[in-house]
Amino acid sequence: KQEVTQIPAALSVPEGENLVLNCSFTDSAIYNLQWFRQDPGKGLTSLLLIQSSQREQTSGRLNASLDKSSGRSTLYIAASQPGDSATYLCAVNTNAGKSTFGDGTTLTVKP
Amino acid sequence: EAGVAQSPRYKIIEKRQSVAFWCNPISGHATLYWYQQILGQGPKLLIQFQNNGVVDDSQLPKDRFSAERLKGVDSTLKIQPAKLEDSAVYLCASSPGRGQATSGNTIYFGEGSWLTVV
User: Fold this and answer.
1) DSSP element (H, E) containing B7
2) How confident is the model at residue B105 (pLDDT cuts 50, 70, 90)?
3) Per the count of CB atoms within 10 A, which of A6, A40, A72, A110 is most buried?
4) Chain B positions in Cβ-Cβ contact with residue A104 (cut-off 8 Å)
């Protein structure tokens, strides 16, 4: 059974700092991995999708990496801003379309 | 393009009562998901539809939860009777193809229906 762990559970940083969020999974037989953002009281917004054959994906100040063999993914946020404050979730997906989510990392960026 | 619509946004019921949630996915999306998200945890898949057929309902508590997707478009999720531990956000999501297994495919979430059982 796939298990997804996100560490740390919460993170607080000053504005402008670069930071890394971690996601680890137990079964490396994945199809792709997706990072989401969730604002309080809202649904999930997809940030980046990495296929199992890819090593990384970039979108603006966000960069996600994937090391399938070690069961790890990281989300790097450059030059953090208060508007980046949210909960970040990773989801690991099988080729049958089944997703397993981590419990998320709640990020607070202080002005 | 309109997003995934859900209603009601908030519901408070007493235990043993029933409740129903409605979801309208993005137009043309074949796959529809219902997730349960308990506060402080990640979403857990309850049921996945491909058009109007069930692909995965292995984590749906079938003694009290039921879901249907009529004509492969809208969907309803029902809980009867509700228990205190059902208090959660119920997220509906949709994607164009066979879920996230399709290359480059992505999943779109609604804003959720917040259920409190007292």
Assistant:
1) strand B5-7
2) low
3) A6
4) 41-42
